[in-house]
Design goal:
Blueprint lengths: L5 E4 L5 H12 L7 E7 L7 H10 L4 E7 L12 E4 L6 E4 L5 E3 L8 E2 L7 H9 L2 H11 L6 E8 L7 H15 L28 H22 L4 H4 L5 H24 L8 H9 L12 H18 L3 H17 L3 H8 L2 H8 L12 H11 L6 H21 L9 H21 L6 H34 L1 H58 L14 H18 L8 H22 L21 H10 L7 E3 L16 E7 L13 E3 L6 E7 L5 E4 L26
Parallel strand pairs: 1-2, 2-3, 3-5, 4-13, 5-8, 10-11
Antiparallel strand pairs: 6-7, 6-9, 8-9, 8-12, 10-12
Helix pairs in contact: 1-2, 5-18, 5-19, 6-8, 6-18, 8-12, 8-13, 8-18, 10-18, 10-19, 11-18, 12-18, 14-15, 14-16, 14-17, 15-16, 15-17, 18-19, 18-20, 19-20
């Protein structure tokens, strides 16, 4: 059985126009396996050629004709029906749309209806566009005596296609799909382990020499700086500033070489043969480039997208996640910025311009005064203290002169304080020793003064030298060399994967564009649905609800899939939006026809549908089990009942929504449909033998083989018989 019933309206057409409409229909690519033709009884014979064209096309497997109104006879009456023979056993005759309520008994009284259930032809047409009902009706018409029947309806609910139920559920699902405050997307996970590519520098290449020269210069500077705190550096001058400056120059040269390399091979552009040549020219052997496998990556993204949507992630959350992931991939190759962080300009400045030795400590005048006072205890008195004061001042001055960048004029204030302190100590010691001390006592005092002065000056020098070495940041420079070598290794690894990484970023952006296109269309649909005044269904038995949310996720996935092959030129968004619009239109059309959700191409699993059960199932079972001989909406006037043959048992099509267990409780043979609005019974009441006459030929003036003129005006409304 085909999945869709196509409708062809020939009402109001003359013979040529009917043939033209049929020709247009046959030239469309749609499946015409099941075709519902609506026509007027008065024009059916004139449209014989159109029906013959349909039969001759071999595109129509099942044809069902729905005829409206009466066909005037020679005497002006409308009691009979003359039809083309090729629609025999394919015809339902709606004599009057308003109809009557009538039980299937010849003598039973018929009650005029008030039109409260709307257009009888429209309700019947809706019902016959359900593929299962159409197929069953076609089969039963083949069994009806004399080849035509007048339909009677018993329908529950307000009719329609259940589309209002669906649109309400769709509106809710779209709102949830667009809600930024949704659960987050599932983690992406790493698609492959992050192995390292070996770094191979060209022997005697510019980078290898730059690394060697910088390492050698830093080692020499560190070696010289290690000797500076020793007492030997006070005895003989040690030129440590020059090696530090050389280390700064070599380190800056290395950083410059690496910066040129990273600039020649930017992280946001692909590795080409030209860039591989630039890598070689800079003294690095280029790595083997990894290839990007698009389909596995798209499958990975597809699994992530399905899992995230199933988790409840909305389109804004998905876009945020994809944007962050693309940003992370873009930042992975920022080697130039990381080079500036590893080997900063401030580090190079301190190496190239070593700071001067720190000044003498502020506490030095105190021990100077003490040592001068001790020397003043000698027999020579103040003279001995003055000699010690002079020696102390000379030693402090020596630490200034021997220190890197040391100049006397820069430390004159500190020297003056030390000289004055020692002078004061010398005078005080000389006056205190005027009483005379034993030789052993003043000798010990003088020795202590000299030894103490030497030890104190040595400790002062060592502390200031160590502080200077720390200020030069040679340790930081040594670490920077190691980090720059490691960074170059990371860059080589990154270059091997750069093209693949950029391809991955392109794929992420393609998916983002596609999802944004879907988002634009859903936002437009949401605005349209908000404008509609959607009524509540007459009975809450709609098989939609949460299932629509699930199926909308399937639709999103199906809409963006073609967009992933659209190329990174910005065309993915419009393509996905167009695909989303088409799929939603098809979805709405399927619901309008009452097709099962299984027929939708984007649906991966129909099981989440909310199925009918409990009290609703009991109600529906009662409607589907209705007695076909009971009172029904018969689509004719009271005066037409004489045309109907109530004697034989009518052929019956029972139909109802798909419940739990696929129809458990329904009568056998019930046609299961997906719309809660379609539930009840269609009975096919045959006509008496003298009512229908089938004709097989027509002359060129529009007369049939019996000579009757078929050019009367259409009378779709008809009158009472």
């Amino acid at each position: 059985m085909n999945s869709r019933v196509v409708r062809l309206d020939l009402k109001g057409c003359d013979a040529d126009e009917a043939v033209s409409r049929v020709a247009d229909l046959l030239n469309t690519p749609q499946d015409l396996g099941m075709l519902l033709v609506e026509d007027t009884a008065s024009a059916a014979v004139r449209h014989r050629a159109a029906f013959e064209a349909l039969d001759g096309s071999r595109q129509v497997t099942q044809l069902l004709c729905l005829l409206l109104g009466r066909q005037p006879g020679e005497d002006g009456s409308g009691g009979g029906l003359r039809l083309p023979g090729n629609i025999q056993r394919r015809t339902l005759w709606v004599i009057e749309e308003t109809g009557v309520d009538w039980p299937l008994r010849a003598a039973a009284r018929a009650r005029r209806r008030d039109g409260r259930d709307g257009d009888g032809l429209g309700r019947l047409s809706e019902l016959l566009r359900l593929p299962g009902v159409f197929e069953r009706t076609c089969r039963l018409l083949g069994e009806v005596p004399f080849g035509a029947a007048v339909p009677g309806l018993h329908v529950a609910g307000a009719g329609g296609t259940g589309q209002e139920d669906f649109l309400q559920a769709l509106r809710t699902a779209i709102r949830r799909m667009l809600d930024p405050a949704s659960p987050p997307a599932v983690p992406h996970g790493d698609e492959r382990p992050a192995g390292r590519v070996p770094l191979r520098l060209t022997k005697d290449g510019v980078l290898q020499r730059a690394f060697d020269d910088a390492a050698r210069a830093v080692d020499e500077a560190r070696e010289d700086a290690g000797e500076l705190p020793g007492i030997g550096a006070l005895i003989r001058e040690l030129p440590v500033a020059a090696p530090v400056e050389a280390a700064g120059e070599r380190t800056a040269e290395l950083r410059g070489r690496l910066g040129e390399l990273f600039q020649a091979v930017p992280a946001d552009d692909r590795i080409t043969e030209e860039r591989q040549a630039a890598i070689i020219a800079k003294g690095v052997q280029p790595p083997v480039l990894e290839t990007f496998e698009a389909e596995p990556f798209r499958e990975h993204l597809g699994s992530w997208l399905r899992g995230s949507i199933a988790r409840g992630a909305s389109l804004p959350r998905l876009d945020q996640d994809l944007r962050e992931r693309a940003g992370t991939l873009e930042r992975r190759g920022a080697y130039g910025r990381r080079l500036g962080q590893i080997c900063s300009s401030s580090l190079l400045h301190r190496l190239r311009n070593p700071p001067p030795m720190p000044p003498p400590q502020d506490w030095l005048p105190v021990p100077g005064a003490i040592f001068a006072a001790l020397a003043g205890l000698s027999p020579v008195g103040v003279a001995g203290g003055l000699v010690m004061a002079l020696l102390w001042t000379a030693l402090v001055a020596l630490t200034v002169i021997r220190g890197p960048g040391g100049r006397i004029e820069d430390h004159s204030r500190a020297l003056a304080f030390n000289a004055l302190g020692a002078l004061a100590g010398a005078i005080a010691g000389g006056l205190g020793g005027a009483a005379g001390l034993p030789a052993a006592a003043w000798a010990a005092a003088v020795f202590a003064a000299v030894a103490g002065a030497l030890v104190t000056i040595a400790r002062s020098w060592r502390a200031r030298a160590l502080h200077w070495v720390d200020d030069t940041e040679l340790d930081t420079a040594e670490q920077a060399l190691r980090d720059m070598h490691q960074l170059l290794g990371q860059a080589v690894t990154g270059w091997s994967r750069l093209n693949r990484r950029l391809d991955a970023i392109d794929e992420l952006n393609l998916l983002r564009q596609g999802l944004n296109g879907v988002r634009d269309e859903l936002e437009a649909r949401s605005r349209e649905l908000d404008k509609e005044n959607l009524p509540q269904p007459s009975r809450s038995v709609a098989p939609f609800g949460e299932a629509v949310q699930f199926w909308l996720g399937d639709l999103v996935f199906a809409a963006v899939k073609p967009a992933q092959h659209g190329g990174p030129d910005g065309g993915s968004g419009p393509l996905a939006r167009k695909e989303t619009s088409r799929l939603i239109d098809d979805w709405e059309s399927a619901v309008e026809q009452g097709l099962s959700v299984d027929t939708l191409p984007f649906v991966t699993d129909a099981r989440p549908a909310t199925l009918i059960g409990g009290e609703d199932l009991a109600y529906l079972t009662e409607q589907v089990s209705y007695d076909p001989a009971g009172e029904m909406w018969q689509l004719c006037a009271p005066g037409d009942l004489g045309l109907l043959d109530a004697a034989p048992e009518p052929r019956t099509v029972r139909f109802g929504p798909r419940p739990v267990a696929d129809g458990a409780g329904y009568p056998p043979g019930t046609v299961l449909v997906s719309s809660s609005a379609h539930c009840g019974v269609l009975r096919l009441v045959p006509l008496h033998s003298h009512v229908v006459e089938w004709t097989w030929t027509e002359d060129e003036h529009g007369q049939d083989e019996h000579g009757q003129d078929e050019q009367a005006e259409d009378d779709p409304g008809g009158g009472e018989a």
